[in-house]
């Protein structure tokens, strides 16, 4: 009986530097979209139930939790898929 060759599993990794760059890109896009709606930080933060300081950190690419990201994305009338598709990414090697 012939033995099947094991396939090597290739696991791709991402560096902290790449993650930080993605966070910054997301924050910048979110801020641009909020400003395009002429929404102030205070008003928008209140409407999506995030603290003002929390929204500022998100727009700076800091403190990005999935929960807060989803609140902001929904408040902007977009989807996570649309947001992430706009982020430049490295192709896999």
Record the SSE blueprint:
Layout: H1 16-36, H2 41-47, H3 52-59, H4 66-75, H5 80-85
Helix pairs in contact: 2-3
GO molecular function: DNA binding
InterPro entries: Cro/C1-type_HTH (IPR001387), Lambda_DNA-bd_dom_sf (IPR010982)
Domain HTH cro/C1-type: 30-83
How would you characterize the overall build of this protein?
The chain has 93 residues and is mostly helical. The protein is elongated, with a radius of gyration of 18 Å. The chain has helices spanning 16-36, 41-47, 52-59, 66-75, 80-85. The protein is built from five helices and no strands. It has one domain: lambda repressor-like DNA-binding domains (434 Repressor (Amino-terminal Domain)), CATH 1.10.260.40. GO terms for molecular function: DNA binding. It comes from Pseudobacter ginsenosidimutans. Pfam families: HTH_3. This is Helix-turn-helix protein. Residues 30-83 form the HTH cro/C1-type domain.
What is the succession of H and E elements?
HHHHH
For the termini, the CA-CA separation is 35 Å
Label the overall shape. elongated
Largest sheet: none
Number of strands: 0
Structural class: mainly alpha
- In the CATH scheme, what's the topology name? 434 Repressor (Amino-terminal Domain)
CATH class annotation: Mainly Alpha
The CATH architecture comes to Orthogonal Bundle
How many discrete structural domains?
1
